[in-house]
Automatic annotation (TrEMBL):
PANTHER family registered for this protein in UniProt: CYSTEINE-RICH RECEPTOR-LIKE PROTEIN KINASE 5 (PTHR27002:SF1050), RECEPTOR-LIKE SERINE/THREONINE-PROTEIN KINASE SD1-8 (PTHR27002)
Binding locations of ATP: K376
Any GO MF annotation of the entry: protein serine/threonine kinase activity
Transmembrane region(s): 285-308
Localization per record: Membrane
Signal peptide annotation: 1-22
Protein name in UniProt: Cysteine-rich receptor-like protein kinase 10
Keywords: ATP-binding, Glycoprotein, Kinase, Membrane, Nucleotide-binding, Phosphoprotein, Receptor, Repeat, Serine/threonine-protein kinase, Signal, Transferase, Transmembrane, Transmembrane helix
Source organism per UniProt: Populus alba x Populus x berolinensis
GO biological process, one term: response to oxidative stress
GO cellular component terms, A-Z: plasma membrane
Residues of the Gnk2-homologous domain: 26-131, 137-246
Catalyzed reactions per annotation: L-seryl-[protein] + ATP = O-phospho-L-seryl-[protein] + ADP + H(+); L-threonyl-[protein] + ATP = O-phospho-L-threonyl-[protein] + ADP + H(+)
């Protein structure tokens, strides 16, 4: 709830700031996921500048109907962009808004490849993917008046829904080339009138515009129940209604003539009426209620912070988010044809193969628009039917965070099940970390950033996304690195997609990698956010030491990396654990703090491991005193004592550094601890 208040305050401040300069458009919101970025002075940036100046210069033309789309550059650096002005605004207001947006967006989204920015008067967006003539509903902005209607609220709701539905049909059926825009004024009470407006970007076809607006209207109940004003805004279309005249009715009537009067079947005492009233009404304070599906880092941090103190209140907020987040992404928009995947990967050629994981082989591919993708061809034997598979993919595709590898979609044809991911250029963490030649490339600041990135990605999976995802197989080879060496967690949600039973947080099929698995998960199949915390602790220790947890089995001495680190900690020599190649670059405080956090995470008692929200907080703060870590579990001992598995399998180091010993499919270690 705090973050909600925070956005309200922020927005009010912004509105105030804007009112004082009458010329500037009224800023509403911007969305630029920090997941794909460009580097400064890159070709992409040059193309983007070209695009923005072309949008601005074309906004001065008078014959463009308040909309223009243009692309700049060639793939893979092509930029596609468009602006849309509200149907009733004059050319000069439109021009002014677009010019302002073109500068403002670069301040708000300086390095993001994909950005959208909204004002009352216009919208501007661009992307590295072709966004023309396609319905984009991947992001939703809800805005609502804080005031409730008091007279006949149910009739009001119905009046709003009926009117918006009606004008949506009218806007969608506008001929191609014309504005897809409509307004309508209705009597509500003797003195109050309802003003409604809908608009699509005119590059959409009639059915697409209808579909987009239907999607928006279906959110009415979520955002605007009994509210005096409200908006649902998608990138491709939006509606707005208020009890005051927020558009210029004269200009609107010129832009989109109202239809001949027809029976609307409205509630009694209402009906279409001629437009006459001048500008009036007080600007309503609007609240940005919920943003889906991208969680802005700011909100994320705030939520992480709130988590510690305000667990109960936060849940309420999420309950609300859950209600509305359900059908934002539709299945069709995620589905790829097998033929296009085959083309992209050169028919799964061996040259394109990136590696092999527990769930199948991974190939690199390139889509016709130049977008690089990673294609995971799932091995047969998934427990999922087609419908469940699609459901899970849609859910997992909604998880978007800059420290998670993005799932673009899937392909399901015949017995092929394929997942299509964002391609992350710099391979995986283990490729650098455990290679004596390459580990020097990871200096301390990079490693520290990677630790922070993994923690934030996990926090999002555990707490801040709409699903609670427990990764279950966190390890160095599942941490991918982007061009700037930012960590991106991969392979999350696989248990769901693959259909591994996970009903009570207790499973008979263990999906994971020995060495990273918490004792309670490995032995009893009990998984929770705390088993991920354990794997995270092992990862931190590996990142600091540059040694594989599994290598300790061979070297003898300490049972494993965790015990080795703990012994040094107890003896007051924690820095002995550190990778000697860090010698010149490390910050003593940061290293010691990270070792400390790592040791807290690998404690035997799951309850004493910190949740990821706390880990993120600890990584960002030097003033918090950490508890002393308990001695880690002597995992190996208790396992070998049981004698149920050969210990060499246990720390399976088959020197395929990228191989994923998901035991689920091989059956060798899996069923050892059934429950
Ligand atoms: C986005 O990512 C860049 C580099 O990866 C980082 O410097 C920047 O702080 C991030 N922005 C936000 C809002 O998180
Ligand atoms: C980008 O180019 C400008 C001039 O062309 C130069 O001043 C600036 O340092 C460059 N920035 C980077 C990050 O290379
Ligand atoms: C409009 O955009 C085109 C590119 O699409 C560009 O060539 C032209 O200069 C722009 N400006 C005007 C005023 O047409
Ligand atoms: C605008 O988009 C359409 C497709 O909807 C495309 O055919 C056209 O070339 C685009 N205009 C420009 C100037 O790129
Ligand atoms: C509007 O109604 C909701 C419940 O329906 C209530 O929580 C909220 O406080 C009301 N707002 C105002 C301004 O009265
Ligand atoms: C509304 O639009 C009309 C014609 O487009 C214009 O003459 C008038 O000044 C506008 N009114 C306001 C209040 O902007
Ligand atoms: C709407 O209300 C006005 C009075 O404010 C009235 O003159 C008009 O007839 C009403 N329109 C309809 C369709 O009921």
């Amino acid at each position: 709830m705090d973050s909600l208040k925070f956005s309200t305050v922020l927005l009010s401040l912004l509105s105030l700031a804007i009112i004082t300069q009458a010329q500037d458009p009224t800023f509403l919101y911007n969305n630029c996921p920090n997941t794909t970025t460009f580097t400064r002075n890159s070709t992409y940036q040059a193309n983007l500048n070209l695009l923005l100046s072309s949008l601005s210069s074309n906004a001065t033309r008078n014959n463009i109907n308040g909309f223009y789309n243009v692309s700049a550059g060639q793939d893979p650096d092509a930029v596609y962009g468009m602006f849309l002005c509200r149907g009733d605004v004059s050319n000069s207001v439109c021009r002014n808004c677009v010019n302002f947006a073109a500068k403002d967006v670069l301040e708000k989204c300086p390095i993001e490849k994909v950005a959208m920015i909204w004002y009352d008067e216009c919208e501007l967006r661009y992307s590295n993917r072709n966004i023309f003539s396609t319905v984009d509903q991947d992001f939703t902005l809800f805005m609502m008046s804080p005031n409730n209607v008091t007279v006949q609220p149910d009739r009001f709701n119905q009046l709003v829904a009926t009117t918006i539905n009606d004008i949506a049909a009218r806007a969608a059926s506008a001929p191609s080339g014309a504005k897809k825009f409509a307004v309508q004024q209705m009597n509500y009470t003797g003195i109050q009138k309802l003003y409604t407006l809908v608009q699509c970007t005119p590059d959409l076809s009639t059915p697409d515009c209808s579909r987009c607006l239907e999607g928006a209207i279906s959110k009415l109940g979520n955002c605007c129940n009994r509210k005096q004003g409200g908006r649902v805004i998608f990138p491709s279309c939006y509606f707005r209604y208020e009890l005051y005249e927020f558009y210029n009715a004269t200009a609107a009537a010129e832009a989109a003539p109202p239809p001949p009067p027809v029976a609307l079947s409205p509630p009694p005492a209402s009906g279409p009426e001629t437009i006459r009233k001048g500008k009036g009404g007080v600007s309503t304070v609007l609240i940005i209620a919920i943003l889906i599906p991208v969680t802005v880092a700011l909100v994320l941090f705030c939520l992480g912070f709130c988590f510690l103190s305000r667990r109960a209140k936060r849940n309420k907020y999420y309950a609300q988010e859950n209600d509305v987040g359900n059908e934002i992404t539709n299945v069709e928009s995620l589905q790829f044809d097998l033929s296009s995947i085959q083309e992209a990967t050169n028919h799964f050629s061996a040259d394109n193969k990136l590696g092999e994981g527990g769930f199948g082989e991974v190939y690199k591919g390139t889509l016709p628009n130049g977008q690089a993708i990673a294609v995971k061809r799932l091995s047969k034997g998934s427990g999922q039917g087609a419908a469940e598979f699609k459901n899970e993919v849609v859910l997992v595709a909604k998880l978007q965070h800059r420290n998670l590898v993005r799932l673009f979609g899937f392909c399901l044809e015949g017995d092929e099940k394929i997942l299509v991911y964002e391609f992350v250029p710099n391979k995986s963490l283990d490729y650098f970390l455990f290679d004596p030649e390459k580990q020097g490339l990871l200096d301390w600041s990079k490693r520290y950033k990677i630790i922070g990135g993994i923690a934030r990605g996990l926090l999002y999976l555990h707490e801040d996304s709409r699903l609670r995802i427990i990764h279950r197989d966190l390890k160095a080879s599942n941490i991918l690195l982007d061009g700037d060496m930012n960590a991106k967690v991969s392979d999350f949600g696989m248990a769901r997609i693959f259909g591994v039973d996970q009903t009570q947080g207790c499973t008979s099929r263990i999906v994971g990698t020995y060495g990273y698995m918490s004792p309670e998960y490995a032995m009893h199949g009990q998984f929770s956010v705390k088993s991920d915390a354990y794997s995270f602790g092992v990862l931190i220790l590996e990142i600091i030491s540059g040694k594989k947890n599994s290598s300790f089995y061979q070297t003898g001495g300490a049972a494993d990396l965790a015990s080795y680190a703990w012994k040094h900690w107890r003896d007051g020599t924690p820095l002995e654990v550190m990778d000697p190649t860090l010698a010149d670059t490390y910050s003593r405080n940061e290293v010691i703090r990270c070792i400390h956090i790592g040791l807290l995470c690998v404690q035997e008692d799951p309850a004493s491991r910190p949740p990821m929200a706390t880990v993120v907080l600890l990584l960002n703060s030097y003033s918090i005193t950490l508890p002393l870590p308990q001695e880690p579990a002597f995992f190996l001992h208790s396992r070998t004592d049981q004698g149920s598995i050969p210990s060499k399998e246990f720390f399976a180091d088959k020197s395929k550094s990228n191989a994923v010993p998901y035991s689920g499919d091989e059956g060798s270690i899996t069923e050892v601890y059934p429950r």
